[in-house]
Amino acid sequence: MAETVAPEFARFVESERRAKRLPQATRKMAEGDVFEPVFIEAGRSIELMRVASRRAAGFFRPTQRSEVVWVEGENELAVGIAGVDVKLGDGLIRVLIPVRCDQSGQARVEVLFATGSPTEPAGLYAATARRPNGPEIVVAAWGDALVAFAWQCVLDLVTGIAAATGKDARGNLLVPVELAVSARGIQILPMARHRFAGSSTLKSTVKR
User: What pTM did the predictor assign?
Assistant: First the structure.
């Protein structure tokens, strides 16, 4: 995870604090401490997912690029990073990716992830059938890459929002520890990360 916070994520968190929906990060959080949950309404999730898609494509600075082209041998696929969409349900995230190629023309591929829900929150994990929905010629050639890209978009969104909430006592950006999704939106629980060396309270059982 890049140790930078996208300005759009920072502005979102600041707007939530101005609206009193999220407290200021005033206390020094020790490792393993959790912050208040951050809720992203379904409508805002689309805008923020498109920020995440640009970062997943490797653009960490402002760009006018609306798509990237993947190349494998003689095959090419244009992926519309500016048009990525997201649909939410209870425990479900659907990432919709615009694509185009000579064989299929313009199309949209849907990748479905099963996540935690408000009644059963889950750790930062999602399961998928691995095969997206879309034109067969695109899915056959690029299915794995599209699933990986969609999951990277989700990861960049939730890690970016958690990081934007603040830092722990050691100056590290917070990380997401729990994810819950409903039709209303996405809820993320930020946490101060554990330290695995030095003065960590976690003890290793490995002996040298």
Answer: 0.87
